[in-house]
Every structure is written in structure tokens, then in C-alpha cells.
Amino acid sequence: MEVIAIQKSALEGMKNELKALLELTESATRKYSSIFKEEQWLDNQEVCLMMNITKRTLQTYKDKGVLPYSKLNRKNYYKLSDVRALLEAGQPYNTNDNGFTNK
Fold first, then answer.
1. Which residues are in coiled coils (predicted)?
2. Which pLDDT does position 30 carry in this prediction?
3. pTM score, two decimals?
4. Is 1 among the domain residues?
5. pLDDT tens track of the chain, all 103 residues?
6. Do 32 and 72 fall into the same domain?
7. From edge to edge, which strands make up the β-sheet containing 75-79?
8. 76 within a domain of the structure (yes/no)
9. Residue 83 pLDDT
10. Overall number of domains in the chain
11. Pairwise CA distance, residues 53 & 29, whole Å
């Protein structure tokens, strides 16, 4: 076993930084938890499976503003209600077997 000795002040500084990081994490969690409790959110894969579309078609929906989305930590999320509304309205673009869209 390796033993490393550091000054007590350095250890206290590390503890304080870890506490601050924990507080930031808890704050962010509280900030966004109410948003996620109000509405069920889906990621890209869940939307593609639910709508039976390819990732490229989903990208087209995003690019054309057909399906609204929110980005959190570089990941896209979609409201379940928006996905259901699009399904009920009929998908504006259909994909063929090779994943390309037909307009």
C-alpha cells in the first residue's frame, strides 16, 4: 500500500472544493428536476423507436422545425407530448428503406 502525505491545509482545500462541486451538482439537479417531472422527455433513440424513423429523419425534423427539442449537456431531448402530436398529425416526411427522406 502506498501512503501519500499532504499538508492539512491542502486537504482542507480539497474538501472545500469537493463540497462546492457537490452543491453545484445538487443545485443543477433541483433546477432541472421540476422540468422533467412536469413532462416526460425522450432522447433521440427513444423518439426514433417510437416514431419508427431513422436518426437522419429525426435530424431533418429538427432542422426544419417540425419537432421541437431541448438540449441539455450536449444531448437532445423531446417532449413526449410533442412526439405524440406529430404522430397524430402524420409524419411530414417518410423514409425509404435506405434511410433517405422523400418529400
1. 4-31
2. 80
3. 0.56
4. no
5. 899 899 999 999 999 999 999 999 888 878 767 666 678 889 999 999 999 999 999 999 999 999 999 998 889 999 999 999 999 988 665 545 444 545 4
6. no
7. 41-43, 75-79, 70-72
8. yes
9. 95
10. 2
11. 31
Q: Which domain holds residue 27?
A: 8-37
User: Do both 55 and 93 map to the same domain?
Assistant: yes
Which is nearest to 83 in space by CA: 38, 39, 50?
A: 50
Q: Provide the b/e sequence for 52-82 (b: ≥16 CB within 10 Å).
A: ebbeebbebbeeeebbebeeeeeebbbbeeb
DSSP structure string for the chain = -------HHHHHHHHHHHHHHHHHHHHHHHHHHHHHHHS-EEEHHHHHHHHT--HHHHHHHHHTTSS--EEETTEEEEEHHHHHHHHHH--SSEE-TTS-EE-
Instruction: Check: CB of residue 77 under 8 Å from CB of residue 43.
Output: yes
